[in-house]
User: Fold these one by one.
Assistant:
Number 1:
Amino acid sequence: MKKLITLPNFFLLVIFCIPFYLIKISLFDVPTNVLELFAMITIILTITQYKKQLVEELFKLPKIFVFSCLLIIFGILLSIFFNNNQLTGLGILKGWFIIPMFFSFAVYIILTSAADIEKIFTSIYLSAAAVATVAIFYKFFGITTYDNRLSAFYLSPNQLAMYLAPGIFFGLYFLLKAILQKDSFKKLFLHAVLLIIIFISLYYTYSYAAWIAIFISLIFTIFILAPFKKQFFIFTSIILICGIFLFISQKDSEKMTSLLDFSSRSSIASRATIWKVSTRLLKDNIIVGIGPGNFQSSYLAMQKYYPPYLEWAVPQPHNIFLAFWLQAGFLGFIGFLFLLFFIFTTLWQQLKGKKNAALTAPLLGFFIYSILHGLVDTTYWKNDLAFLFWICIFLIIAIKKSVNKKTGLHTHMK
């Protein structure tokens, strides 16, 4: 029992429980949620146990990464200060940046082996599978949106899809590893079943943007990793065939009909209007933005300049780059671009080195997916997505550190 009740295992539990951010609570009259509370407990415990190591590792972090983080935080603070709704903005800074950053850094402190990193992969993967299982029960009992899309306990089908998608990359990692290592049929069957559950749940979200982003990121990742053209051709053919069948199954659906309707009432027209409004807001607030948490009110205030909106409840601008510039200001946006530069250059270095290519692959898939889907949705500005984003960044840094050491990683996570 004592071996189970350890700080590393508590970290794994918190990651598995990321969807618990939906359970709202108040702590000393400060609004928070169960996920943040768990994360803060683990951060405090890590400080008490690894105080000296925390300081040492903090100063060893890549300078461009630290610079990016500081730019983002400073940009958000400026945007909060020069705009209205400061308390909401500070809450967003706390819940979507500060706590996820520090929690992920604490995870990084105890990540000292490939096995440790795989345990984090497992927690993310199993969390997605658990959410997918619950979502399937929602579908079974006919609890869907007005247009028959699956959202489960999330506010929208797209939010559900964005949480499930990372589970596919980490699930495929374990399935392929089990196949290559010729593991037992039981283990292969388990991974296949879990992935099928995630795919089924994702299918019923009818989030086409998520589907396309996943397919493209898988193809690109395979292109980078596949040592032979024949392997690349086989894997990409399978992915493309699956994609074609998925979209054929939707040819007569209400959502596909709406998507292909290029009239002023189509879903594409709705997104176009949101981006037009966002661009206009950006022109008027190019330096400090509109402040985090202010997009919905700013969007509605712009209605007089446009035809009647097709969508009224729009808390985010459906584009990750517009979201950062509008809510973190110009400095925050530049910091985000620097951060992406760091992420992808570091991933490329690890893949080029081959030593940790397999371990790096699902992280590459995750970040390619996040950017691709982020072009038409906001794949960051939410509690669960923010935690996943920063955890995966620090996993990359952990892999980078292991390569630089050359001697490999020793382990605390036992």
Number 2:
Amino acid sequence: MSAPGPPSSAPLSPLARFFTGVVGKAWWVIAVYALLLPPAAWFSLKVGQDNSIDRLIVTSDPDYVATREFERVFGAGEYALLVAQAENPFAPQVLDRVDRIERAVAAVPGVTVNSALSTFRRARAGFSPTAEQAESFRHFVSDTDLFRRQGLVGDGFLAIALVVGVKDSEQRRDLLAAIDRAIAEVDTSPSPLSGLHRLGQPYVNVYLDQTQRTAWHYFVIFTAFVIVLNLSLYRSVRTLVAFLATLGVCLALSMAYIGMTGGMLTIVSPMVPMTILVTATATLVYIHSRFMERPAGHSVEAHQIFALSNKFVACTASIFATATGFAALAISPIRPIREMGIWVAVGLLFTWITVFTLFPALQKALATPTRLERPASEDWFVRIAHALPKWSYRWRWPLVVTALVLSAVGAAALFGVPGVLGPMRILTNPVEYMAHDTQLYRDIQRLTPSLPGLSITQVWLRGSLGTVSEPDVLLGLHRFQQSLEADPDVGAAVGPTTILRMIRYIGGEGDGWPEDPAEREAISGELESLASTEPMLHHFVDSHSLAQAQLTVISRVLEREGFERLDSSIRRHWQEAMAETPALGELQLTTVGLAPLNAKMAQSLVPTLVHSFLLTVVVIFSAFLLVFRNGPARVMAMIPSIFAILVMFIVMRATGMMLNVATILIASTILGTSENDQIHFFYHFLEKRHDGTVEQALTHTFLVAGRAIFFATLINTAGFLAFALADLPPIRQFGVLSAVAFLLSMLADFTALPAALWILFRSKPDAWGTETGEAN
């Protein structure tokens, strides 16, 4: 059933001498790791977490740098809305409730509020919820389009705009929690409102952040699975302890590296420790399954040295193939994906060292039993291993053709068919990363059509000292803003001229822009005098030099193509405005903001998928060049993984899934992880093929590696399937699709791969003619 160990008189190889030393000094090895564990745990606890969308951008990106420079001038506020719904939003009791809500939120430090009601209160030097003032307010907001364009007033609602000054996820979480506390009574007793709804990117970010902080549940589930599988497979508590201790050290060392380098976990980071645990567990299964097959007459220690030496090359190649597959993600401009690739690669290096030092030491110290001490009552896998070679030969052509057809269909599902099927869509809207049954998601989907939008793009204008306050420049900015608001992609555009028009409207001068040159000169002077004292102007004008201004463009644009179109429209309207008002030529325009950065991140998803996948293929194939001397083996070793990846895209199309920040990683993840099985398969196939037939080589492979491949695949599947319990759709989809792909890869290992080998070697099973009546 397994290859015998080396004769006791045979000289030991350098590798065998190394493992002899590890096993002989088992307690010393364990002591070294015991000393490493406390500092590793300490550094692991230093790892922070930030799941906000802005963490997806690399900090060295030019657009990211420009956005941060913009925020140093105008502040780092994030835009949100509190939407108060009521059958009659102008009823006195409704206005009273909205007024109290706004005052409570305005009292929260770090939050700036703006609403039609606060503007009215300022214009009238106060507000009281009487019938007369309610009617006056209704006329105040109805006689101008300033409030409706900004989404502050609409059919059946009044909105309170919030600018939340945040620097990081912790401050954002604290500020929104303070806002919730300030308006907590509305949630329990909303009357006379029909509801108060929270909308905007800050709430989405906090939701994503809080949801992913429950990721530890995934690892509890995986640990439970490892315990059940280990006890059922090896039936030994001592073996289970050796497994769990090794896995704990692998995880601690990997997380310690992240903590030592100042790493921050993000929305996709739970895949890092899970990949480490899954790969480590699968490797331990390969090693210990070989150790379990101790022939009678061989000592435990001699067989342990043989098993470690026998599995070293295959396990090393598989771990390094996985590590290089993830390291290929370092080319991604998406920060969490790049960090994930580096962290997994480094973690797998620690894993490789740990499984070949600590685990053998634990095997020796705990005296883990072999099958001679724990015989199985019925070895069903032995029967399957003897039957599979002949079965795969009989159905070789249907198996290979079916695999090729499904792979072709999967490629079409991903890349599309010209004129028939478009390429797979990329999902970039952060709102769609939320669970669709949450109240926040439902509110955003239901209320957004009534609003100008929730997506914010800032138009940053920079000139020389005093440029912004020039009368002709202000006239040009007004015309530019008017043309923007007429654009179908723009819901609203708010800038310094909006505030100046609002001030004129409050003063009874109307909401239009003055046509008389003398009035324009006067409003220019008013800007200069109010820039340092008017709070509403601080967000739109650099009050110190009057050299910079910004317009906030509010839209419903969410996908990359929409932002590209919006950016093009902004620049086109700017060129038209400059042609009409040459004074604008003194200003330089830049579009900044998190929304455009998210669009750029989305644009990077496809290169991330394609480039990292191709690099993974090249690196793994190069590893095969070193491990396998057989040319066909180098190529065919990738067939099951490629098949699984392509068929997975069929599943995505059939279920309506799209590529996103998580599912974009599946191709590299599956190829890097499932290649372990193919490496072990071909290592043992070629091991026996030197002096045996194809059938003998396949039988030997299934006997030695087949059981480990089967259970390692179950480990991979269970580990990533734990993500199916996630609240975030992208993470949930990643878990389900990864599990499906692992099972497909194993299916190909046991069917299409041996069938292809029969065809490649043009061979038949031994005694096939005798059994079937065919001539050899």
Number 3:
Amino acid sequence: MEPQAPAVVAVVVASDPGPWLEETLAGLAAQDYPNLSVLVVDNASVEDPTPRVAAVMPGAYVRRLEVPSGYSAAANEALEVVEGAAFYLMCHDDVALEPDAVRLLVEEAFRSNAGLVAPKLVAWDDPQVLRQVGMGADKAGTPVPLAQPGELDQEQHDAVRDVFVAPGGAVLVRSDLFDALGGFDPAMVLYGEDVDLSWRAQVAGARVVVAPAARARHMEAASRGLRDLSRLPGGAIPALVLRRRHELRAALTNYGFWHRLRVEPQLVVHSVAEVLMAGLTGRRESARAAASAWAWNLRRPGQLRRRRRRLATCRRLGDGEVRLLQSSSTERLSGLVEDAFDRAATHVPHRQAAAGPTLPPPRPWLIPAVWGLIVVVLVFGSRAVLTQGLPAVGTMARFPSAWHLLGAYAASGRQAGLGQAGSAPLAFALLGVLGVVLGDSMGLLRDVVVVGMLPLGALGAYRAARPLGSVRGQLVATAVYLALPLPYSAIANGRWAAAVAYGAFPWVVGHLGRASGLAPFDQDGPAGPRRWVGLGLVLALAGALVPAAVPVAVLAGVGLVLGSVTLGRGGTGELAGSVRALVAAAAAGAVAWALAFPWSYDLVSPGAQGSAVLGVPEPVYRAVGLGSLLGFRPVPGGVEFLGWMVLLAAALPLLLGRGWRLAWSVRLWWVAILCWAAAWAGGRGWLGFAVPEPGVMAAMAGAALALSAGIGMATFEADLVGYRVGWRQLVSLLAAAGVTLAVGGAALQSVSGRWGAGTADLSGELAPLLAPVRPGYRVLWVGDPRAVPLSGWARPDGTSYAVAYDGPGDLLVQWPPPDPGRARAADADLSLAEQGATVQLGRLLGDLGIRYLVVPTRQVPSIEPSPDLAPPPRLVAALSRQLDLKPVPVDPSLQIFENTTWTAADRRPAVGSHRPAGRALALALEGLAWAAALALAWSARRRPEDRGEAAGVGDPGAAEAAPAGAVAGGGG
């Protein structure tokens, strides 16, 4: 008696099947395998497919589900209704097997002792085109196809081999293995269940092989949009979102505990990198899918734990061994980078004239080469900063602990100045949260925030130039912005506001361009109020760190309007677009003000000084010169002419541009001119009101002219190619030489590894002196605003004064209350001493708890190139006459006087106008406002085609069966 062949049950999951169902069933009916049964699980189709099944296979068993479910849950019905089967053949309803396929799969399962065996899948309409011959997967669970899209079948993949994934469509699986693993993951309604099952099978010690001799045609109905997916659980979810969810779920489930500790941080980094890369390349759907995958999985911790426990019961292979079977590359990020290069190489400049010669498209390696060089230079230039840290010089104070910042933000009063009441700045909350994320490594956070403004500004310039439609233009704008001397002198001299403005303002300029709705910034659809929220978020974040960012953004909007008025030839349409940008800047400023409430209210409340927003103005006699402003070096030190070089590239479209290129260059130059003029005239007191510090104004001018330089490259591509060699080409060569020289000068700044910053800071210089006998004393700083390391209040003689606790002060005193309050008494006492009305200033200051009075004469202690910023001689002479102030020699750049009559200060913060319960309510409302603003900004970024996005974009290796129902079993 011949032994009976092992029983195989083909489980076909059908969901509103199309005309392909009959061909699928006919393929199963024609099999030459002697012990095959067929179970059709109908996933609650609108039309009962039982008559269609009976017409082709009268012996097939049909199991109908009442409610639609995913493919995985439907296929798992086999565990309930099938008994005695040795193998399950899991099939979609659009797969047609060749007559010997089942027999060959079973034979290979015994020959290779495999748990899962996959056939060769070919195209439904053209069997010569390969679909899948097994798949790989990377550590993040992303499938890696082994056959290229559209690859012809020339028997090049016909060897039996181990693979990491048996692709969905048709796969033979041992029934005992399927039962031990609990079947497919029912939460994976569509896509990715094949990766997850194959992964778990190998963890359990089973082999996964592909048997190419067994062939099957695959329709891929879902990928081709032939299947209605709106009846999936959860509705018509975009296909990419489902894939990312399920890939992450597989990774979070299938690694063991210790391996997850190592892999999960990498998955977070991969997701963040994907979001950034997708944002830069305009793939917003990819960014949304990567972010939402974490949110979806983190909402289901119980499911993940249960599946981990079940897998642990059958684990036979360690994660290290499984990792060897996976792909070593990161398929998802590699695909995004390749897509970005493909777009760059084939992109045509926006509205470029079709007639006439044009430059050849850039090489695909141009973008990675330039960005790779940028990354190398930035990392090389920051190497000592990241290992040794930045000194606490200028206004770059040390950060207190994250919990201290958050506690100060939540408190109902402030310990700043002399402890007057007021709301804490929004910066405390932002930096406190970041500090918690970094494990309270506040020194690292400070260095990352400061040095991180360099790549942040470069990314902003690259993104702002994207609508130009010129890859070379984007790279030129990025290179020009990095070539500005401003950020490096700001880091070297400790100018917090200038460094932060450098990182933020390219993003502001890009938002203003899109808000105008003028070509070429009209590609994202019409501008409207919802887009103001995005700019408002940028200004809220920048304004929290540098309040002057908001008025400077409005000033940029005014510059765009003046540029359109100057053009005067574009009709009311162009002027209306610039007015839209100005209105957007003003409205975004209001959004930023609302998001920073109630601190923002204190900035404009009665008694508030303008220095709270704009900073203390520099003395008129030390106002920055026009040459330094034009050279983007408003902070002393360095060579100005290197900054002048970028003006050549920015002026190129003024000379050669046509159409929108000329118009936008004029507008951007007006932005720069307005910023320069305000900084130059305001520094000389000609405007009658204070203006932001020159470094902040220069940052906005630099962002505008970097974009103009990118337009210059687009001009060269679109407007210059048709001309014969002449003065135009000569001007372009001079502009290119200027940019090269400026970039070289910026690259030299990286040699020190500290961007020119020193190593000595105030903490080191003052530590021996200011170590308190007992805590509770204050330090009064007075002198030139550029030398005083704290943000304070202005005095009539052009100096500034500020108060710190127990030493040089930290971040908590960098945002003083807008109203000096009781601190005015210290200013009044200083005035009495200057007028000769007292020789016992110490007694007057001692009543305020002031133990030391510090007068800095240089911006950075003990650094000789730092310019002399000594205060007026009258102040120093008055202090020297005081009988109760004892000079203490410490550092040549500091004149320190010890008050011999001081009394301990009350360190308790003043209670504000709102009680703790009211403060808690204000914090809750502020959190809701931020959530609403983020949601509005995100929805405004979605393109119209994104909003109608369907879930039918296929993945070559994903199972695209519709929501599955139950699975059949048994016998005939």
Number 4:
Amino acid sequence: MNSLWFVRKFPMNRGQVLVLTALGMIFFVGMIAVVTDVGWMYASKNKLETAVNAGWKAGFDEMKKIKSASNIPLSIYDKYRVTMRIQEVILKNGYSTPDLMNVNIAFGRDDALTVTSSQTVGLFFARVIGYNSANVDAGRVNTENNYAMIPIGIPHGPTKDISKTRYIGELFPEAGVGPGNEFSPEVEYIIKLGNSGPNDIPLGVDPASFVRILVPMDVGTLAKPGQGETPLNETKYLKAYGVVHWILGQSDLVPADWLIGYRGGAFMLKYHDDIIARLSARSIYYEPLTAAEANDIYTAVGDHNLELSYQPLVKVYSSQTSDDPVELILKAAEIPYGGTGAGSSYVPYKVGRTDPFAPDNCSHIYDTEILTGQLNTGAHWLHLHHEDFTGNDEGRNPGGDTTDNAAASSFGFVASGSYTAYQVMKQEIAYKIRQFVETGHMMYTQCFATETLDAALWMRRLRKGLLGDLFSDCMAFTGFSLKMGTPTTSNQNVAGTVDRIEENNAIVSVVNPGDGALEEVAVPTSTTVTSTLKVAGKVTSVGTTDSVVKLTSPSSMKNRLFTISNTDIKANNGKGSVSIGDRISKYSLTTTTITPTSPLPVVGQAYTVSISVTTYTGGYPTKSPFTTINTKDSGNFNLHDIYDPRQQDHQMTNLTGFGGKTTSFNYANIRLSGSNPVTVMGSIGSTDATSATSKKYLSGYCGTGLFTFTGGHNFMDTPGRRLVLNNVLLGSKVAENIALGTDAPLLGKLKNNYGVVDPDNIASGSPDDYLNRLTNGFNSPTQLSDRILPEIGNQQPATDQGIASRVATLTSRFVVVPITDIPPEVPGNNSANATATTIYDLVGQDNPNGVYNPASYSFGASVRIIGYALFEILDPTEWTRVGTNIQPGDAGDLGPAQSGQIRGKFIRYIVKPGEMPVN
């Protein structure tokens, strides 16, 4: 067919064809630019890498030749010879003398030689779209010829191996320098994560010997062959928690394993006479397990074993003189709370090795302790009584208890406008409790305290006129509504204390009841008095506009000189002119005197001052000014996740509902999105956490701390009471984080990888390959910016065998370890790794078949080399377990070492991350 058929048949479209042709040409030119210029850049980078590698090899050989004759550090002349040799080879690989200006050569310790270069490459078709040139980079560094690189990748920061399934990693700042911002010489670090391997019971233990105790927590009658049937009655559930809490206070009995989701959240404990005696004394059913039986259970539980090693210290906030509902639960479980003393003298109540539980030794705290900072001493976990933090009608109140009137006054909370002193104080107490949680602690709250705590935090922002989201301080809820009028400002009398004396002023510190801010008010210590005197005198000198008058009366002012205007003198003496000797009489003169205040203020004295206060007027204070959170639904509720530690129970559905002022929560006003979304753990009438029903059981993070809200407080059954104790035991992770000096999430992060890498980037091989590389080193060249493939699995037997071989001789102890990060393309190429921060987080596996460059392979589960470090491998018997970068409780006297873990002392950086560019 004639190629012009379309134009001839439709001649009116001829202009459209020209437009389409022009647009098509632009597209084709753009495609040519991409294909041609990208290919050119790739070829240029390969050329530069070849030249740099060749130059480095020639320079390294020259350096070794020099040092073979004299084993002393290179002289300036020696370095010059090596540099000239490198440049000579680079020139022979297609580069000119001006290009050498962009070649960097560095000499490190122990024959470390670094060659890097960045060259500008001109582009072709890309000039059409505004790109004239681009840079290509290459670099090569020897990993110290005397030491071998091992197939392990580490993040740039300390790692804590907190359990066989979880870890905590803390990355150093990218530009950090000095202690705390980089690895420290001679300090012990974990350089490969461990795992208890296929057997949690160490090898060599007789499989038929008793090594563990299982305390099942499931429903019904439990039986063990040969022992008959033994029911685990209701009270024994609670007592079991108390025994575990006691174990966490005995260093030789930890860890205690919490088998999440297994038999109602069973406990696996060490087989020890003291534990058996304590269980037996409380008639708690248990099953002794052989090594073989225990390993079968560990295998079945898998990643859901939560290892507990630290005892959480508990405090209870309550206005009652009698025990509140949670205090009754803690005492039934025999979990101590509170203590004696204050501040640095505070001593928490603990149950000793052979001590019985003493309920009378428990104590709770209230407002004064919060205001004086006692909450921040000796507590990991706080329970809140069903308190009204809006200061209206629940708990102690200013109308019913003079104690809190005195507390409000002593802390400067003074009645003003629509807010009372007590209401302002309660808001500040709520904020101090929030600060306690957000700094890495746990809080369990029930009934009215759940709703009013958030309401008080919201009202505090409203009262203080803080910018931004009024709900940003709230923990779980949004949607509070309160009709308040326009803010008004007025002067009000406020009581304060004289803080200091400055010149003629006493400085009084007061709390502004309008916004709760501390203010300093200057009160004059003397009074100024102004009076008018009638004086007489004689002119002593005459000026153009003013003259000097020497007073003759009154006697108190006699002989004083005053300058007076000529106009006033003429008016006084009745003359039309002024001359020396003229007399004036009864001239009005204004004078000022100072009268001291009596009595004078003194430091520490109470003083009332008048300040400007901004207040809100309107619908407050009325009881319960908000009704948007509480649904008052007391129906039975269901738990949603058997693998959540806070939901361990022998009854997951139809738990008896319990009532109170705030019985349940409105789903519409729970914060379910944002940076710290709330987790719904229990719903009324639904087994779906996302259904729009009343919610009973919530949890979420506030800062690095964790909170739990439960509707109601009259617990009617043991399953409901277990929820409280679940939260108490989870506080062990708070105690652990505080002991280790970390602000990481309480449960740590799941280990998806253990740090093993395959430096040849071929997804194949066997444990023998890994063992050979670990034992003898991996000598193939790697360089900065290489993407390295992590290997799946802990490689426990090969790791233990390889380390045993390396620590056998002094020289083989020293190894080079690549420092890695997550390359920028990985999150986009693999959504499963969108939040990965270290090698241990990666899921999935790449198959690059020997490729290291992201331009040639779409990496989605690999790490990037950003540096190299020299470590001395340690034998497990040499582990000190000292320092915040090391996890106590996983080796030596505190338990068996995790199989497959590697620890070493940091010696020095070979290439420190950030010192050389990576791409």
